[in-house]
Design goal:
Blueprint lengths: L1 H22 L1 H28 L4 H29 L5 H22 L1
Helix pairs in contact: 1-2, 1-4, 2-3, 2-4
């Protein structure tokens, strides 16, 4: 779980660095914002699941569903905040960061299988 979160951070950070060098700091910053909007809630969710380990089975199921609900709410909240409070938001890099952050667990999971 922690490895997936680390991979997420590495992927969108690398993309943000490439965007900053290739197209300018603003593009890299906005790509990072998009990635962080999905990464921060995911990292908190992973931490919550790690802390729930060793408890009863029902507690783990409840922790998963409550954590997932909170993760989705935080993600939407971060997206709304960035759209409303970042002047001149560059949509393409922002969406690239968001998609990279969301899709990384899928590819890391495929690699582990």
């Amino acid at each position: 779980m922690i490895a997936v979160v680390a991979w997420q951070l590495a992927v969108f950070s690398l993309l943000a660095a490439i965007a900053a060098v290739g197209w300018g700091f603003q593009h890299g910053f906005h790509l990072m914002l998009g990635g962080l909007a999905a990464w921060v809630p995911n990292a908190l969710f992973a931490l919550r699941l790690v802390l729930q380990r060793g408890r009863g089975r029902e507690s783990n199921v409840m922790a998963f569903f409550v954590g997932e609900f909170l993760k989705l709410g935080l993600t939407v909240g971060f997206l709304v905040l960035s759209v409303n409070h970042v002047p001149d938001l560059q949509w393409v890099p922002w969406l690239v960061g968001l998609v990279a952050s969301i899709m990384t667990p899928l590819f890391v999971g495929m690699r582990a299988a």
